[in-house]
Structure to design on (223 residues):
């Protein structure tokens, strides 16, 4: 299995631009999680889905953030407009039987 | 709510030293407990887990025992290597849908 796949691995953008992060979970996993990691705040859970349905988005910091999961094999996290304080590593993770598998992350830099 | 508390880092050890990273969890329900490891520039990886009281999880020389009486799940390794340098996260499952609550992470640096 290829594991959780995230793209892009690195993204550099300017403040005000739209950013879309993509994730392909492990086949057969029915839960998907988006995390953000920074030095200041550590690992934060932003939103998670079960069977493609958003369960809890209370970790999404602002309305500028949105996430979708149109099918079992694809999810996106969008930031519009982006701000410098959004700079972080964003991880997607998936789970089926309680073991959570993380992707390699997308390092986002907003200038 | 559910939470996990682990010791502050960084922890610096010499190669072949004994490692302990303390972790305690809130005692709501009967959670499964996990240790994850994050190497530089990578995502978190499951290191070991335990699903019920007195279970011992082990992997790559690391061990942790699920202690219900002390609500603890301390990570140990008898002899660390430079390659063990990483950030270690203690975690518990919380609620449904396989959601996991993570501790703040403990950075381990092993020097030759």
């Amino acid at each position: 299995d290829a594991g959780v796949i995230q793209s892009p691995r690195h993204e550099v953008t300017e403040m005000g631009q739209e950013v879309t992060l993509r994730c392909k979970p492990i086949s057969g996993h029915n839960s998907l999680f988006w995390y953000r990691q920074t030095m200041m705040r550590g690992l934060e859970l932003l939103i998670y889905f079960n069977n493609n349905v958003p369960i809890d988005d209370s970790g999404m910091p602002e309305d500028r953030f949105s996430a979708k999961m149109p099918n079992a094999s694809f999810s996106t996290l969008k930031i519009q407009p982006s701000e410098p304080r959004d700079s972080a590593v964003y991880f997607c993770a998936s789970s089926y039987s309680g073991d959570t598998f993380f992707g390699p992350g997308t390092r986002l830099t907003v200038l | 709510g559910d939470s996990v508390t682990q010791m502050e880092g960084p922890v610096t050890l010499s190669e072949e030293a004994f490692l302990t990273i303390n972790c305690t969890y809130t005692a709501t329900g009967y959670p499964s407990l996990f240790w994850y490891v994050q190497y530089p520039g990578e995502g978190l990886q499951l290191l070991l887990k335990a699903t019920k009281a007195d279970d011992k999880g082990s992997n790559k020389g690391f061990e942790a025992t699920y202690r219900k009486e002390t609500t603890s799940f301390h990570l140990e390794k008898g002899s660390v290597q430079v390659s063990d340098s990483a950030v270690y996260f203690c975690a518990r499952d919380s609620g449904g849908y396989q959601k996991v609550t993570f501790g703040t992470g403990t950075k381990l640096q092993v020097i030759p």
About this structure: The radius of gyration of chain A is 13 Å. The longest strand of chain A covers residues 42-50.
